[in-house]
Amino acid sequence: MSKRKLRGTTLSDSAVGVILILPALAIFVSIILFPFVNSLFMSFTNKTLMNPEYELVGFRNYQKVFSDPTFLRTLKNTGVFVFFATLLPFVFGMIWAVILNNKFRGAGFLRAVTLVDWIIPGASISFLWAFIFDANHGVVNELLKSMGILSTNINFLGQSGTAMMVVVIARTWQMLPWYMAFLTGGLQGIEFDQIEAARIDGASGPQVFRYIVLPGMKSVIIIVLVLGIIGNLQHFDIPKVLTAGGPAGATTIFSISVYRQAFESYKIGLAATIGTIWAALLAAFSFLYTRKAA
């Protein structure tokens, strides 16, 4: 075993490795592991913010959560939100990435302008789209009325059938630049000679995209989609600011449900239970990401 000297003291390589990893380990334990274990423990208690005393209740919280129609609706809302808020920006981001990947004057400027949307805070984006879909003077209502499609205004954010649509649109607008940036990198990794050879052989644009571009970007696409799903499972600010989970729970997703239980109902035990289920879903997709990334 090799030895190393540290200020006059001889240490083995394994000891040096342990010393070097201790700061990172301390951060992991204090910031990630301890809060998770504490949250997991709290999910088996009836703790509330109003009463410092609590007792273990076993799996009662989990039974209550899974038998609650509200939670089942939250689960459905989360699935709908994650699906469309991942698919739509991916599709539009891919289209925009393909367009901007062509060499034409102004492509770099358009790419830079698109990326600006990515750095705008979620709260600001929410206020922007709340104004666009405003029931009284919103741009969408005024446009639809001027086209003769509507005779009266629609309260898009106040109706269960349209509120989630607005939330997804706002999230799509926020995340499109992120998808475009990653997918542009994937496009630039494809050998141009392959595309040229296919075009010489008579392949059309859609055929080149289907048989050369998509297979060449497979690993990038999988990683981007998994990261998008993880990000949407964690998302909070846009649905919170736009609708606060309403109307009537139509846009309540996991993050908002945990917030309500903890800071509105003060039920820490139930909030920790929902948070643990939420964390399990995140862990599953994170594991999938690490496998694909490896």
Verbal overview:
The chain has 294 residues and is an all-alpha fold. The protein folds into two domains: 4-11 and 15-42; 62-293, MetI-like (MetI-like fold), CATH 1.10.3720. It has helices at residues 13-42, 60-66, 69-101, 107-119, 122-132, 139-146, 160-188, 192-200, 205-216, 218-234, 237-242, 254-263, 268-293; strands at residues 3-6, 9-12. The chain has a two-stranded antiparallel sheet with strand order 1-2. A hairpin with a 2-residue loop joins strand 1 and strand 2 (9-12). The longest helix has 33 residues, at 69-101.
Q: What do we call the CATH homologous superfamily of the largest domain?
A: MetI-like
Q: Number of helical segments?
A: 13
Sketch the topology as an H/E string, one letter per element: EEHHHHHHHHHHHHH
Strand content: under 5%
Q: Biggest β-sheet, characterized?
A: 2 strands, antiparallel
Overall spatial form:
flat
Give the strand tally. Answer: 2
Average predicted local confidence, pLDDT = 88
> Which structural class do the helices and strands define?
mainly alpha
Q: Tell me the domain tally.
A: 2
CATH class of the largest domain: Mainly Alpha
Strand order of the largest sheet: 1-2
Write a concise synopsis of the structure shown.
The chain has helices at residues 13-42, 60-66, 69-101, 107-119, 122-132, 139-146, 160-188, 192-200, 205-216, 218-234, 237-242, 254-263, 268-293, and strands at residues 3-6, 9-12. The protein has 294 residues and is mostly helical. The chain has a two-stranded antiparallel sheet with strand order 1-2.
